[in-house]
Amino acid sequence: MYELAGTIKVIFDTQTFNSGFTKREFVVTTDDKYPQDVKFELIKDRTTIMDEFSEGDTVSVGFYIRGNEYQDRYYVNLQANKIDRVDAGGGEGGGAPISDSEPVEDAEGDFPF
Asked: Which of 39-43, 75-79, 97-101 has the lowest mean pLDDT?
C-alpha cells in the first residue's frame, strides 16, 4: 500500500453506473515544493466514507494502484483504502480508516468508469 498526505481540494458526488457499480472520486493537493493534485477513488459501499470529510481537510490517504484494460484501452486508478484526518501539528487525529484489508476487487462487468 502507498501513502500520500495533503489537503482535500475537491470531493465529487457519487457516480452510479447502469451495472449498479458506484464510485466516488476526490482530489488531494500535496504539500510538496511543487504541489500536485492527485485524484483518488472510493468504490462500492466505501463511497460514503467521504461524507465524514470536507474540502480543506488535511488527510493522509493509503491507497493501491489499480490497472486494467477495457475495450483495448488501459486505465490506472488510485483506489483509496485508508483515510486519516491529520491535525495541524502533523499528527493523525480521529481519522476514518476505510479498511486494513486488500483492495476491493471489481466484479466482471463493473466497467465503464
From this structure: 97-101
Of 65, 71, 64, 63, nearest to 113 (Cα)? 71
What's the pLDDT tens digit per position in 70-90? 999 999 999 999 999 997 655
> How far apart, in whole angstroms, are the C-alpha atoms of residue 26 and residue 91?
22
Coil, helix or strand for 11?
strand
Answer whether 107's CB lies under 8 Å from 44's CB: no
Helix (H, G, I), strand (E, B), or coil: what is residue 59? strand
Widest Cα–Cα separation across the chain: 47
The answer on pLDDT for 32 being more than 80 is: yes
Domains of the chain, CATH where assigned: 2-85 (2.40.50.140)
User: Where in 12-57 does DSSP place strands (E)?
Assistant: 15-16, 22-30, 37-43
